[in-house]
Amino acid sequence: MNDTIQTILAFGALALALLFLIRKFFWKKSKKKRAFGDAHDCDNCH
Amino acid sequence: MSKQINVALIGNPNTGKTSVFNALTGLNQKVGNYPGITVEKKEGICKLSRGVKAHIIDLPGTYSLNASSLDENVVIELLLNKNDKDFPDVAVVVSDVENLKRNLLLFTQIKDLEIPAILVINMADRMRYKGISLDIPHLEEQLNTKIALVSTRKNYGIAELKELISNYRELSTAPCMHASEIDKDYFDSLRKAFPDQLLYKLWLVITQDVNFGKTDRNEIEPVADFKTKSKSDLKRLQQKETIKRYQFINETLKKGQIIDLSTAKDLRIKLDRILTHKVWGYVIFFLILLTIFQAIYDWSSVPMDFIDSTFASLSEWTKNVLPAGTFTNLLSEGIIPGLGGIVIFIPQIAFLFLFISVLEETGYMSRVVFLMDRGMRRFGLSGKSVVPLISGTACAIPAIMATRNIESWKERLITILVTPFTTCSARLPVYLIIISLVIPDKRFFGLGYQAMTLMLLYLIGFGAALGSAMILNKILKIKSKTFFVVEMPNYKLPLPKNVALTVIEKTKAFVFGAGKIILAISIILWFLASYGPGDDFNKAEEIITAEYANQNLTDDELQQHVASQKLEHSFLGITGHAIEPAIRPLGYDWKIGIALVSSFAAREVFVGTLATIYSVGSDDEETIKNRMAGEVNPILGGPLFNFASGISLLLFYAFAMQCMSTLAIVQRETNSWKWPILQLVIMSTFAYIIALIAFQVLK
Lengths: 46, 699
Fold this sequence. Notes:
Chain A: Keywords: Membrane, Transmembrane, Transmembrane helix. The structure holds 2 protein chains of 2 kinds. By secondary structure, chain A is mainly alpha-helical. Helices cover 50% and strands 0% of the residues of chain A. The longest helix of chain A has 23 residues, at 3-25. Chain A is rod-shaped. The relative contact order of chain A is 0.08. By secondary structure, chain B is an alpha/beta fold. Chain B folds into 3 domains: 4-178 and 247-263, 3-Layer(aba) Sandwich (Rossmann fold); 280-422 and 440-475, no CATH class; 515-698, no CATH class. A 7-stranded mixed beta sheet of chain B has the order 2-3-4-1-5-6-8, with helices on both faces. In chain B, helix 12 (280-321) crosses helix 20 and helix 29 runs antiparallel to helix 31 (674-698). The longest helix of chain B has 42 residues, at 280-321. The model of chain B is unreliable at 210-215 (pLDDT under 50). At the A-B interface, helix 1 of A face helix 10, helix 13, helix 21 and helix 30 of B.
């Protein structure tokens, strides 16, 4: 493994790590609106 | 032709409804399915007096008329559809003498439908063992019904029940309470709009999302478009209705049902008497906690040492076997030590969840919830807050989501805001490594100081949650009412399979959930520690060679100084030095500062970060613990991780809001940024002040 490949692999890992963290903490996922009448957390309590 | 009446047997699951059905019908029964669905339909014939026959339908068990399953839909569809051939002339509501409070919720709803209803209190033979006595005339008066005390096991009360069914025309159809009081205006307008319809039936049709195909829906179809309330307002009204019903039930049972535990003869009751005792209950809980923490330390030390040395060897092996270069360094100095920092805690986390799971499986945890409810009220919390607070020991995120079943907004908000104080499993790695460094591995009457410190930290977390709840209760001016109902399951031996599955699932969630973040942060940290601006970093070798030219240092010693110079002037080092003035009064150096900043994403990153920082440039096959123990305080001299700085760090992590995911979930649950920001500022400031005081006092 020469230096260039090592550097590419290392920076590739860095890019993946950054992407993962951005997705994890800053990416706002679009949420499906819960329809009225869907199983509600309280329904099974009563 | 003899007369036949329809009788519906209704009740909560596990109330012995089917036993009552069998006792009434004997062999005159058949089992089929409701048309179009797979829900079982049991019906039979019972001969009553005066030649009357009762056609009895054993309806599926349901907790209330708020349907959440196909089985429950069947019950509601029948009770709302007068045109159904099975529509009951009389409803027989079966309850269990031990769970009367919960069972009566359904009864009060059925009474609101103005169907003649008989209340069967089943398992009456258990009353003596449970120390229960009932004032039947009082209950009959309050509930506006007739009651049959039945024991299908001892075979009594069935004849009386048959007699009551025969005389069903004498039963009052008037509701026993007025649920419409939850919103008088709304129900008045509903009554005016549909004067010919039964009010509670309209309410059920409006609020239930079930298939009413078989009911006379056409008549009340326009009601579905009754736009006076939004869906969320209706949901809130439903919750208010449930609270109102429980208030009525509680009031009724206050006089109608007396439970005298001192006369109880049942083993379960005897155990409950001790485990939920106002003094012994807490003492036993405290002793159980102490045993758990001691065992966590005693049992996990061997596997932990093994994992620690394995990762150290793996790191060294990678460096020796792979060709030298950037990626090899990243692997051996960044990724492997970072991962080692999480894998090492698997044994302790697995043991913790093993104990928690056993306590849950045996039914003890419900007793703890009950026990704590008394104390919780003083702090402005509800008994239901105990569940989030206890599950917060695993992770604050599901714990905060678990607050959704707290009806009172004020209690829910307080629970959301204080839950992050409870010691989550992400704090555990930080606590474990710091405790092992600064608390002596000695014992006092067989109890290790380290285990006791860990337990103390859990208690501090719980205490901080309660203390802040009390303050919030006084500050927050929100009016609300709540109710607490908890079902005490029977004691049972834990199923090994269930326990094993819980342990595997929880440990896996911790390792993979935290592991990915730690891996990503380790990679970024390694880059920041391995690259830097300016000559101080790029010409580190020349600077150090010149600086130590007159001293006869070996090559290894020289390389150590070069690595140290590079780290200090790397991007990471510069960041650490920038925040050092703020954290030095707490006894921390710039390396700990970096770990504090990086662990803001998630607390467990702290150990991985330090493992990465201390690995950069190090050639020795060292364990994380040894590397941390070898760090020297640059200002005061002596070990960096000493008693004062260690305690300061432990307290900082006990109180600080070091979790981005928790902040995100608080924002989602409160639908506002105000609360998570307040939580972050207050918790972090408090943590800083306490850590500062601890270090300054102890140094």
